[in-house]
Amino acid sequence: MINPSQFFKCLSDETRLKTVLLILHEKELCVCELTEAIDESQPKVSRHLAQLKNISVLNTRRQSQWVYYRLNEELPEWAKQVLMTTLDAQKDTIKPYLHNLSAMCDRPNCCD
């Protein structure tokens, strides 16, 4: 069970919040897609993803050499609602990151 204090503390970081919102919007993303979208280094993005995974906000799925991150389906309903409400309210804020993602060349294919 996720602790509300940990949940909100973890999401108080701008990089982690952007990451979760992008993953929520796109359903699933890998590290290379996130680094391109938010224009951060791979080590920084990976570190933040690990923190989100450690508190059970995100899960992973490995396919070939890619590790895809997605929202943990077992998140409590209150946490999912907080994230969906935040995504709905921040659609304009994440537009530039979605644009970066759509402009990415050689995006991994999740269905190889």
UniProtKB/TrEMBL annotation:
A UniProt-annotated Pfam family: HTH_5
Record flagged with keyword Transcription regulation: yes
Organism of origin: Kangiella marina
Protein name in the entry: Metalloregulator ArsR/SmtB family transcription factor
PROSITE patterns: HTH_ARSR_2 (PS50987)
Domain annotation HTH arsR-type: ranges: 1-90
Keyword DNA-binding tagged: yes
Domain of life: Bacteria
Keywords from the named record: Arsenical resistance, DNA-binding, Transcription, Transcription regulation
